């Protein structure tokens, strides 16, 4: 029996997101330790000359040049000598300071300091960042780009990242390529495929599934190697909304079904073996917003990244009324840093969705103009 | 001659970003018009029965069921009859309202309304969203996921999106796999490749380039079909910083070289035929931050998306001092919504970069605790 009234016992969005996050495995990540002193030698921090600070402003004869990567053993700095040196190069024996190129004159192979160098000037000291064996990052920290670099830095590079495979399939007998008036085209399929692509997934778009439990079950039993299947439609309480029952029949673990969000109440997430099923509502705005909320969380967990926070905050330029006990995501344009509510026509309104910059989070009974609310940016 | 002091005439970051944005082409995008009325027929907005409102609470005999996509010509609703109908299905002739399933009782093929239906109740009227020919979206609007869906909806789907090809190459003779104390490993290559991958590009990591103008020129002349080449190093004023001169020799258009940002002063962007070169500084923090600022802008423009805004705002939990006339991006952790400045060791400090959640924008002479500043979230 369909129930269209709101229920206070529907799962709040944050709990649904937390369940999804908790259910998915993250790749293990080991601690990161310095494999050697960092820097491994005293290095020039600027372009200039490497010299003995104790000889003050005395002119020095240039012995040669050290570039980053050069072996400094080629030179030894003694009283009256110096070595031209580039940022990142190791200091030659005898030198204890860098005099930057701006602080010296040079004539015929001699440099004339215009400032008095002090020991350690513009030198990155060996071990100044870390000593060999130091813990640089504990185990099981979320992965990010900088941490990828740190692992490469200590000689333990990660394999090149791969994209999570995501399949997208709409459901519904009404979806056809050349629709009669009582039929429609599938816009959710291209939409969800574009979203998954933009979020970095390797996307496979599948033909729309008919409203038939057998076909649906077959598609779920044979996911074709994808990690996530996003469907739209078939999760509500209509007579053709077969997905929840089919998933249960197949022995899937339902992570949640029905959440406290408008639009998006029938949202479903389930695990069937290694397959995560995100069962999105069929209405375009609802499918879009729920995919925007749930897919980034699933991808981040599976890729070992931190839980994404999609929310920003801004003021409403005009009031938004809201009846009902589910929080509302209301379409807005963003102008001058303010959220301007758009006169949307509900969860089937693809035109307003296409014009929106953001969706503002509105709790009942609504928000006044000037209220600071959180919002999602559209992608 | 190297200049390490700050210059007020360095290009501000926002101008550099604007130049990059302006220099790159965006794919053309046509206007979107409704190809037919939307909805193309009167549709049920809820599960229930389709009936004649003027017959009020009188019981009706059920003629059958209409699912979404069914041809409604199968039924005609006459006085005393009704048709069970699912959300999205077209109304049969004669019916002018939907009575939701919650507002009726059903016994032996008859329904008994528990409420008085009114004409138009729970009906999405033909053309209620748009009429055939209506302009739904003007030409040359930035592309996004929702607009992809809208185009599919009106029968003008876009081809599946493709990933921009980006090559990544570090430069520097000091980069080796098994470094001696005066050498280092290449961490920028994996870092920039991971960033480009995370931003949705199709990434090709190339071997580090030596500090040699000929090799550099050869690499630039033969980009191997990539649209963007990101290099790190070789853009400063050291004797081995060959990239700017090599680009000029090849006839490249230098979009900018040197910006008002710390770290990141030597940042360079150039166009060489169809190749965009992002010449990032060599220090890891500097390379990271400049890639995080510039690459998303380039990808967005080339993909036809809107200019991304990476900035969020939060309060500083502690003061940050800053000398010098370039704005500083200072590493912070994010806790309880506040920015906690980290004691970073400058632009070579990969460890602090790996621990940071965000980089706060600090203008000289610094910011007090409690100041609201803009920040970038690390990826």
What report would you give on this structure?
- Chains A, B: Its EC number is 2.10.1.1.
- 2 copies of one chain form a homodimer.
- In chain A, a hairpin with a 2-residue loop joins β21 and β22 (338-341).
- Chain A is elongated, with a radius of gyration of 31 Å.
- A 6-stranded mixed beta sheet of chain A has the order 7-4-6-5-9-8, with no helix packed on it. Chain A has a 6-stranded mixed beta sheet with strand order 13-12-14-18-17-15, with helices on both faces. In chain A, strands 19-22-21-23-25 form a 5-stranded mixed barrel.
- By secondary structure, chain A is of the alpha+beta class.
- In chain A, α3 (188-198) packs parallel to α6 (284-303).
- The two termini of chain A are 36 Å apart.
- Chain A has 4 domains: 11-28 and 161-303, MoaB/Mog-like domain (Molybdenum Cofactor Biosythetic Enzyme, Chain A); 32-37 and 129-153, no CATH class; 43-124, Molybdopterin biosynthesis moea protein, domain 3 (Molybdopterin biosynthesis moeA protein, domain 3, Beta Complex), CATH 2.170.190.11; 311-377, Beta-clip.
- Chain A has 7 helices and 25 strands.
- At the A-B interface, α2, α3 and α7 of A face α2, α3 and α7 of B.
């Amino acid at each position: 029996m369909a129930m269209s009234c709101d229920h206070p016992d529907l799962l709040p969005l944050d709990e649904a997101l937390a369940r999804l996050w908790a259910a998915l495995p993250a790749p293990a990540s080991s601690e990161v330790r310095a494999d050697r002193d960092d820097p491994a030698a005293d290095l020039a921090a600027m372009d200039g000359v490497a010299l003995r600070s104790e000889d003050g402003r005395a002119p020095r004869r240039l012995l040669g040049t050290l570039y980053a990567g050069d072996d400094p053993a080629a030179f030894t700095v003694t009283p009256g000598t110096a070595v031209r040196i580039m940022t990142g190069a190791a200091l030659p024996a005898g030198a204890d300071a860098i005099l930057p190129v701006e602080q010296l004159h040079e004539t015929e192979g001699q440099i004339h300091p215009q400032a008095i160098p002090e020991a350690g000037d513009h030198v990155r000291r060996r071990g100044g960042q870390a000593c060999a064996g130091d813990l640089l990052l504990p185990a099981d920290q979320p992965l990010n780009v900088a941490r990828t670099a740190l692992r490469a830095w200590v000689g333990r590079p990660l394999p090149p990242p791969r994209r999570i495979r995501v399949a997208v399939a709409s459901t519904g007998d009404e979806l056809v390529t050349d629709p009669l008036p009582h039929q429609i085209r599938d816009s959710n399929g291209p939409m969800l495929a574009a979203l998954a692509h933009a979020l970095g997934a390797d996307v496979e778009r599948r033909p729309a599934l008919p409203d038939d439990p057998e076909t649906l079950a077959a598609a779920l039993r044979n996911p074709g190697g994808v990690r996530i299947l996003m469907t739209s439609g078939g999760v509500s309480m209509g007579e053709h909304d077969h997905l929840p029952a089919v998933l249960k029949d197949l022995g899937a673990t339902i992570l949640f079904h029905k959440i406290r969000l408008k639009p998006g109440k029938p949202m479903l997430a389930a695990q069937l073996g290694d397959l995560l099923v995100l069962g999105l509502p069929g209405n375009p705005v609802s499918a879009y917003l729920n995919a925007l909320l749930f897919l980034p969380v699933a991808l981040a967990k599976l890729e070992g990244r931190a839980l994404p926070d999609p929310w920003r905050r801004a003021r409403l330029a005009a009031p938004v009324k809201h009846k009902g006990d589910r929080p509302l995501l209301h379409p807005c344009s963003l102008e001058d840093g303010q959220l301007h509510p758009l006169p949307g026509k509900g969860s089937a309104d693809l035109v307003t969705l296409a014009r929106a910059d953001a969706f503002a989070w509105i709790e009942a009974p609504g928000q006044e103009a000037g209220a600071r609310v959180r919002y999602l940016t559209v992608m």
